[in-house]
């Protein structure tokens, strides 16, 4: 459906013209390729869409996962039938990185990029 085919009442409500304020701030996260500068990282939170509470909770969960992963596998948890070393369980915890689309469009995308690298 093209913009011209959208009913005018919907188009006028959703596609309102607006201008950016003079004091606008662009969303940008910290570039970890520049090295680690903790002051700069914390400063970048102002333009990252940063939510301190949620980040703190996420850090707690990651720390729990890392503690679990560091514990040796019990003998009953070993899968002797799985011959493929890529698939065979190697630790007590497999960590997946998941995030919502709104994080990819915020300054947190730079942190996600670093974690993936």
UniProtKB/TrEMBL annotation:
GO cellular component annotations of the record: cytoplasm
Regions that span the bilayer: none
Kinase listed as a keyword: no
GO molecular function term, any single one: deoxyhypusine synthase activity
Protein name per its UniProtKB record: Putative deoxyhypusine synthase
InterPro entries from the UniProt entry: Deoxyhypusine_synthase, Deoxyhypusine_synthase_sf, DHS-like_NAD/FAD-binding_dom
Keywords, sorted A to Z: NAD
Family: Belongs to the deoxyhypusine synthase family.
Source taxon at top rank: Eukaryota
Species assigned in the record: Stegodyphus mimosarum
């Amino acid at each position: 459906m093209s913009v011209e085919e959208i009913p005018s009442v919907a188009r006028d409500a959703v596609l309102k013209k607006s201008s950016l304020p003079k004091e606008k701030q662009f969303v940008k996260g910290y570039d970890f390729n520049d090295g680690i500068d903790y002051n700069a990282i914390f400063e970048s939170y102002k333009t990252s869409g940063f939510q301190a509470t949620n980040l703190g909770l996420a850090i707690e969960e990651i720390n729990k996962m890392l503690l679990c992963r560091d514990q040796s596998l019990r003998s009953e948890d070993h899968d002797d039938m799985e011959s493929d070393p890529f698939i065979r369980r190697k630790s007590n915890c497999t960590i997946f990185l998941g995030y919502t689309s709104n994080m990819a469009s915020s300054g947190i995308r730079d942190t996600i990029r670093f974690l993936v690298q």
